[in-house]
Here is the input.
Amino acid sequence: MRVPLPLSEAFGASFETLITGFAAEEKLMPEAEALNSQRYLARSVIPHVQKLSDLFNRVERLRPSEDEEPEVRRKAQDPAAAAKGLAPYWTESSNPANLRLAYFLYFMPANLYRVASVWAELSRLGYRWPEGRPLDAIELGAGPASGACGISAGERHAPCGLPERGQFALIEQDKPMLELGARWASRYFTDNGRPDWGTRTFRRRLDFAEPLLPRNAPRFNLWLSSYFLNETTESPRAVALRLLETWKRHLDDEGLVILVEPALKFQSRKLLEVRQAILEEVDSHRAGFPLQVLLPCLGHQACGALAAEEDWCHEEVSWWRPPYFKRIDQMAGLDRKTLPFSYLVLARSSRPREEILPALAAHPGAPRQRLVSPAHSEGQDLEFFVCGSDGKRRARYRPQASIEGSDELGRGDILVGPQVRGDVHASRIDKILQRL
Ligand SMILES: C[S@@+](CC[C@H](N)C(=O)[O-])C[C@H]1O[C@@H](n2cnc3c(N)ncnc32)[C@H](O)[C@@H]1O
Here is the structure.
């Protein structure tokens, strides 16, 4: 995904000053300079970063391997069994304060940046917030308000026209994290030029077996969750049905939904299955309201990645990490120079997609394929995987001098009007009309 330079550079020294100053004020760490100390990092941060990293990968490790017994495979594929690996980590830790600090310093900025990048993709494709509409947003499983803060960073560096005033309802089961998130959001919104954006906090454990919001809860026009759905124990279909029921009542007309999830295979496939179940309900009109997939798929086609058992779909963004973040990476043996993730953007709207994302309108009716892998050179050709209305295919393409940027294709790029020959295993794209 192409992230505008100012956004990719927005997490340097000044972000470090902001977040470390805030963390010290909150008494999460002794002083802002503590992160310059290898000893402090080694004792109070790194073990918790490693622990969380292991924990978040645990679901993936429960993934069944081919040679396991059918019963073992069945259990391992059961999302309820898999998600048990994540049961309430904030409170069960021996040092919850340092665990929250590690999350706040390391996982929060990365998720914030992922959400900001999705907002930037909407901006790049011309999405504009309707003039005069207030911002009434909600974030589920908000943790330290990473999603809400991601929207403010996205809007600052890749604007879609959000208003000066805005409210985010933050829903989270862990009280200290929720309260930290509200205070951080207030600081970060102001830093991003949105002093009049605010939050309301709701400490709640969401249970997908029951309604997610009280009936008298208001309607929202921006619906967020980041790295949350994979922690639910219900099946993708049950998650989809519960979300649809909630959106029917609590998502405004022309409201947007942004769901960001891990890039790991098992968790990414869960999002793809949620998408599929949502589309089954929407396209058969059982959902009872219009909802359309905007990104990444640009349509309601059957998922090209789900078609193969071993496949999944993810994006990737690069950033200039905060300097302290680089030190954590080095010491923890991690490398978050690029951030992978899976995502889905939906709109409650009957307007044509080209009206919502006007950058798609240049060649009406032309098919579109999105690169879902990096492109590598094969002689004079580029080779990559694309996904479009007819599924996913491996393709080769020789860049055209007349098409700007066609020689430097990358994951997330959109090919407009590709002329495709061959089968899904080996296609050739002879010509494109535009690269987006
Ligand atoms: C991996 S964290 C993600 C936090 C934040 N959204 C982000 O992107 O950084 C998942 C969060 O969801 C919360 N959570 C998980 N299950 C929940 C539930 N059933 N109800 C409310 N919050 C939940 C956890 O407490 C945790 O803070």
